[in-house]
Input
Amino acid sequence: MLARVLSSSLIGIDPYLVEVEVNVEGHAFHYNTVGLPELAVRESKERVISAIKNSGFIFPPKAYTINLAPADIKKEGSAFDLPIAIGILAALGAIVHEQLEDYALLGELSLDGSLRPIKGALPSAVGVHEHQLKGLILPAQNAREAAVTGDVDVIPVASLLDAILFLNGEKHIEPLEVDAELLFSKSQNYPVDIGDVRGQAHVKRALEVAAAGGHNVLMIGPPGSGKTMLAKRFPTILPQMTLEEALETTKIHSIAGMVRTEGLVATRPFRSPHHTISDAALVGGGRIPRPGEVSLAHHGVLFLDELPEFQKNVLEVMRQPLENSEVTISRASMSLTYPANFILLSAMNPCPCGYSSDPRHECSCSNMSIQKYMAKISGPLLDRIDLHIEVPAIPFEELSAKQDGESSAVVRQRVQSARNIQIERFQNEPEIHSNADMPPKMIRNICHIDSISADLLKTAITNLGLSARAYDRILKVSRTIADLAGSRHILAEHLSEAIQYRSLDRQLWMV
Output
């Protein structure tokens, strides 16, 4: 007897429908899965058989053929356990076939028949809606995540037996409903605040400029100057995520199996990988490509502490996502593109020992060792970082001050006002969301400067030997500073401040 069950899988972040066809015949035991199943799918045989038996059903010795269509796309993961088990029982006559056409099923089975959570519940729910199915049956642990779409009936089940009873109409399970707007508003809280940081007013100002324009940042300072503390609070001054951004970010985290119980990523992601990370882990990879840290930081912040300690080839693979806001991973069998629109926030010491810019400590590094240390960051990568900020050691007077600085909410309000100006400016450019995204041609049209500012920029370019890309970066940062000031035109003071944010281009850092 033949049965057909619907399921879902993903290519990158894009869902597609999978038809699980089960044919049962004969009297000699045989079990075969076709349709390009990966190892986890092939191993489902043992889980499915044990789960069926431990759920109180007979598993007769027959020939079982399971086909996962379309057959030319590789199927991976354990989420096909539940639809395969349901298909087998439907082919054996233990499940009514009528409801199988209305629902897609996902879930990993334990040997006792209970269900374990899966990856990719949210994008799968989106795919079920696109194919106009009635609902999605999946593990209860993934139900809130899938229900935030609000477009399909999400049926949470705890076991194989629950799914069988529901499909046979013997047990009523109410579809889980989640108010995505309410959940989104309740989850937009950060545990830290930039007001916690003592001193470093000029660094906070630079981070405000970076947040207002979506610019990449490099902080240079001795150990203990507060670089990591500032970095962790940087997401709190970025504009609040929109619901659309939250859903897109949650899709990526869902594929990686990193969605928390709330079911929605409502705050800006902050990813801080260790400097021993590989290039595949940073940008994504694997036999079947998975999103890397640059994609997990989508709509948020990627923080690279101790930047020169990262392998050079690891840093260089970031050049494409920094320019294109996406990363393409190619393999022999497929090529996948993941979104990667993030702000790069990085930190480093001024020298190997860390104390060349600290008057309270003696630097033990030679000029040659400092040159080698700085050379670990290539020029092309450095050019893609808009702001280079010096973070000096904090004086005792500032460290012991009792008065808190401005809160994140106050700074974020100014940042949002500047972003609103940019939203209006780029309303006819759907691919551009902030000043940092402007291509060179648009920079010439938007970032006009007067003769005084032009002379100032010419002097800076000549004396510092800045590249053409650095020239563009200065103009973009100047435009952001003008937006924060509410100025329609870029003035000399805005340009001067932007030039100050190119520390590594100035001679004091070029040993």
